[in-house]
Design goal:
This protein is mainly α and 187 residues long. 61% of the residues lie in helices and 0% in strands. It is built from 8 helices and no strands. The relative contact order is 0.08.
C-alpha cells in the first residue's frame, strides 16, 4: 500500500502543506516505525502491542482514506482505490503476532523465479509450470525453515522413492520442511 502512496507523490515540497499522497505515506511510515520497536517481542506481546498502538492509528488512517476525494485517472485515485479494496487484507497482520506488516519477504523469495522464468524452457507447458512451482515452493519453504536446500533435496530424492505416497498421500507431510522426519534427520 505504501508503494502506491509513494508513486502518487508528484513533488515533495518541504515546508509547505503535505499532499494527500505524502500523508498516506506518512501513515504507513508510522506503522512501520511502531513495528520496528516491536521486533524483539514474543508474538503474543507483539499482537497485544499492535492492538494497543497500531489499531487506533489504522482506524484514523481508514477514516482519512474514506474522506479523500481524488481526481479520476490520477495516481492518487489508484492509491485510494487500492487501499479501500485491500482494507480487510491489509489488517490481517493484527490477528497474529507472527505475521509481518510487509510482504517484502515473500516478494524477495519469488524474485529469482519471476526474473528467470523467461529463460526456463521447461515452463512452456502447464505440467512444467506446475512442477516448477512446486519445486520453487519447496525450496523457499526449506530456506524459511533454515534447512540447507541441497541437503534437503538430496534427502527427499533419497527417501521418497521408498515411500508409498500414492496410496497414502498423508505420508508426504512428514517430508515437508516442518515435518517430523525432516526435523529428526536434520537435528
Amino acid at each position: 500500500m505504501r508503494r502506491y502512496w509513494c508513486e502518487a507523490i508528484i513533488v515533495e515540497n518541504p515546508g509547505s502543506e503535505k499532499s494527500a499522497a505524502e500523508t498516506g505515506r506518512d501513515f504507513c511510515d508510522k506503522l512501520f516505525h511502531i513495528e520496528s520497536q516491536l521486533e524483539n517481542m514474543t508474538s503474543a506481546e507483539r499482537k497485544e502491542e499492535r492492538i494497543r498502538q497500531e489499531k487506533p492509528l489504522l482506524e484514523a488512517y481508514w477514516c482519512w482514506v474514506e474522506n479523500l476525494n481524488a481526481l479520476k485517472g490520477t495516481r492518487l485515485e489508484k492509491a485510494v482505490t487500492y487501499a479501500k479494496n485491500q482494507k480487510k487484507y491489509l489488517e490481517n497482520y493484527l490477528l497474529n503476532g507472527k505475521c509481518v506488516i510487509s510482504n517484502n519477504l515473500a516478494e524477495n523469495a519469488i524474485r529469482p523465479f519471476t526474473i528467470g522464468r523467461k529463460n526456463w524452457l521447461f515452463c512452456d507447458t502447464v505440467r512444467g509450470a506446475k512442477a516448477s512451482a512446486a519445486v520453487y515452493s519447496l525450496i523457499e519453504t526449506a530456506k524459511a525453515y533454515n534447512l540447507d536446500v541441497f541437503d534437503y533435496l538430496e534427502y527427499l530424492l533419497t527417501m521418497l522413492p521408498s515411500v508409498d505416497f500414492h496410496n497414502h498421500p498423508e505420508y508426504l507431510d512428514d517430508y515437508l520442511p516442518w515435518g517430523k522426519r525432516v526435523a529428526d534427520y536434520f537435528e
